């Protein structure tokens, strides 16, 4: 492949290739959150309990996390273009089946199928973008990619809320049909197939053990609070299965040849540190989104669409800063950009620890914009420096693991903050209730004594509601504080990253010449 005088790859139809792979990523990213606001409607349609309906979300996340790492092997063995087309087709078909679902097992099964096909869309699209742009242009390319990955979950509740309220919850799945059709047509026309590696083999033992470990960990985190953790035999079994599978996976990886995960990848210090970084980002970003939706709807009484619109500026902050930072990458030390992103994120979380249901819409919008800006300072330089020193032949496998780390971080983060929210509500309720006695001086006020009398059933119910509200507010504050601490703890990791002496040479065989 020829290059221009500036070293830019001479790739025909590069704009069209970028557009079609970005569409595929947006389609997958939207589905991480677009169904959230529709859950109550889905729950009524399929006659599910509150606990059961959560599997509509977790089945998708787990399936996507499990199938992300093999995307590199599948691309090498069967061709990247072919696998991408199969993934787009399967994702669209599974989306239509989700819209047709009439029972809980059906929609959970189809969401599982949706996650299995959708897992390959992000890493394969990312590897194509890395191939068609020069090293100097990758910052801008990763900005486009980052916008599609990270803004999708923000737009999901807005679009999902509007579709659910004005059309039907089934359209949160049908919307993937036109997007998928455009992406399929673009990939078919403009992306060239890569060379096949017929000798490629999948390490079934490693893949199986990692899949079992991830799935059992997700079940452990999702059901632990409901079943009172280790007092339940199911939770004990899930913990043992997770630990055993992960142990076998680690031992097998370091003792066998041609394993599912190549341990030599982690000899690249930037890649190893980047894996930890993106895991923490997955926790803080999507977990905060998972908290904001019930906070706005339950505590503040916002309608579904209004809550989504108020959260929208978070995505605008991400988008603006991703494009800005995309131009700064290569001109400013990446480590300073990462430091700025973590500091901004920590500051936004610190501000949220002072929130109450009386917080103004402007405060929510401005703080959300700042938090989104912090992510914009993180995603682009982190992706760039993580793969800057990684050999091109290991890039497909590296992007798979990188996105696996982000997916697992997101699912673990959502499960942990949700479990902590429920647990802390009970603890805070008990602590506050200790101070509510008939002898409290506050009851000397006739107005309070009449409305919140501990001697009447109506008064006790009102008191319990007030205590529950206060306990819930404090629990949200505790979760925001935890994410602030995680952002601060990640700052020292910046010191472990190093600037590449010479950038890895790109392989451009994936695109049309």
Structure overview:
The structure is a single chain. 73% of the residues lie in helices and 0% in strands. The protein has three domains: 13-202, Up-down Bundle (Growth Hormone, Chain: A), CATH 1.20.1250; 210-252; 261-499, MFS general substrate transporter like domains (Growth Hormone, Chain: A), CATH 1.20.1250. Helix 16 packs antiparallel against helix 20. The protein is mainly α.
Short descriptors:
513 residues; mainly alpha; Growth Hormone, Chain: A; 3 domains; disordered C terminus; Disulfide bond formation protein DsbA
Compact description:
With 513 residues, the chain is an all-alpha fold. It has helices at residues 14-30, 39-46, 50-53, 55-67, 71-78, 80-100, 104-118, 121-132, 138-166, 171-174, 176-190, 204-224, 233-255, 269-299, 304-328, 334-352, 361-388, 395-433, 446-451, 457-490.
What is this structure's SSE topology?
Elements: H1 14-30, H2 39-46, H3 50-53, H4 55-67, H5 71-78, H6 80-100, H7 104-118, H8 121-132, H9 138-166, H10 171-174, H11 176-190, H12 204-224, H13 233-255, H14 269-299, H15 304-328, H16 334-352, H17 361-388, H18 395-433, H19 446-451, H20 457-490
Classify the secondary structure makeup into a structural class. mainly alpha
Percentage of helical residues?
over 70%
- Overall pLDDT: 82
The helix-strand sequence is: HHHHHHHHHHHHHHHHHHHH
How many DSSP-defined strands?
A: 0
Number of domains: 3
Name of the CATH homologous superfamily of the largest domain: MFS general substrate transporter like domains
- Tell me, what's the shape? globular
| Strand residue content | under 5%
Task: List the total number of helices.
Answer: 20
Largest sheet: none
Straight-line distance between termini: 7 Å
What is the architecture of the largest domain at the second tier of CATH?
Up-down Bundle
CATH fold field value of the largest domain: Growth Hormone, Chain: A
| CATH class division of the largest domain | Mainly Alpha
Keywords: Cell membrane, Membrane, Transmembrane, Transmembrane helix, Transport
Protein name: Disulfide bond formation protein DsbA
GO molecular function, one term: transmembrane transporter activity
InterPro entries: EmrB-like, MFS, MFS_dom, MFS_trans_sf
């Amino acid at each position: 492949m020829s290059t221009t005088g500036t070293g830019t790859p001479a790739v025909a139809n590069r704009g069209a290739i970028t557009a079609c792979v970005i569409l595929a990523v947006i389609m997958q990213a939207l589905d991480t959150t677009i169904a959230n606001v529709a859950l109550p409607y889905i729950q009524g349609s399929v006659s599910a309990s509150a606990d059961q309906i959560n599997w509509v979300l977790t089945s998708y996340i787990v399936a996507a996390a499990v199938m992300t790492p093999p995307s590199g092997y599948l691309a090498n063995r069967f061709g990247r273009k072919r696998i991408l087309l199969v993934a787009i087709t399967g994702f669209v078909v599974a989306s239509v089946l989700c819209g047709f679902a009439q029972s809980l097992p059906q929609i959970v099964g189809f969401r599982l199928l949706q996650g299995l096909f959708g897992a390959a869309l992000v890493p394969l699209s990312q590897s194509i973008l890395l191939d068609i742009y020069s090293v100097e242009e990758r910052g801008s390319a990763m900005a486009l990619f980052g916008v599609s990955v990270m803004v999708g979950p923000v737009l999901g509740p807005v679009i999902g809320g509007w579709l659910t309220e004005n059309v039907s919850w089934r359209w949160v799945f049908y919307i993937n049909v036109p997007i998928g059709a455009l992406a399929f047509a673009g990939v078919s026309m403009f992306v060239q197939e890569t060379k096949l590696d017929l000798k490629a083999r999948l390490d079934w033992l490693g893949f199986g053990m990692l899949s079992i470990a991830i799935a059992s960990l997700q079940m452990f985190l999702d059901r632990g609070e409901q079943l009172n953790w280790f007092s339940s035999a199911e939770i004990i079994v899930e913990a043992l299965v997770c630990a055993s599978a992960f142990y076998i996976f680690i031992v097998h990886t370091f003792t066998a040849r041609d394993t599912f995960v190549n341990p030599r990848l982690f000899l690249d210090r930037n890649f190893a540190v980047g894996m930890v970084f993106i895991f923490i980002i997955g926790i803080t970003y999507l977990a905060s989104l998972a908290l904001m939706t019930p906070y706005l709807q339950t505590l503040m009484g916002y309608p579904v669409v209004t809550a989504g619109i108020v959260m929208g500026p978070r995505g605008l902050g991400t988008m603006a800063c991703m494009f800005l930072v995309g131009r700064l990458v290569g001109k400013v030390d990446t480590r300073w950009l990462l430091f700025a992103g973590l500091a901004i994120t920590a500051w936004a979380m610190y501000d949220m620890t002072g929130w109450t249901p009386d917080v103004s819409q402007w405060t929510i919008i401005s703080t959300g914009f700042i938090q989104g800006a912090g992510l914009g300072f993180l995603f682009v330089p982190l992706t760039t420096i993580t793969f800057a020193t990684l050999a091109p032949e290991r890039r497909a496998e590296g992007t798979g693991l990188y996105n696996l780390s982000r997916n697992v971080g997101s699912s673990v983060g959502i499960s942990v903050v949700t479990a902590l929210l429920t647990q802390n509500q009970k603890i805070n309720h008990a602590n506050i209730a200790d101070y509510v006695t008939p002898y409290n001086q506050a009851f000397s006020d006739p107005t309070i004594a009449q409305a919140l009398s501990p001697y009447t059933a109506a008064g006790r119910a009102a008191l319990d509601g007030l205590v529950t509200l206060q306990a819930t507010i404090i629990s949200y504050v505790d979760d925001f504080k935890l994410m602030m601490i995680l952002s601060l703890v990640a700052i020292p990791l910046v010191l472990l990253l190093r600037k590449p002496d010479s950038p890895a040479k790109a392989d451009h065989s994936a695109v049309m010449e």
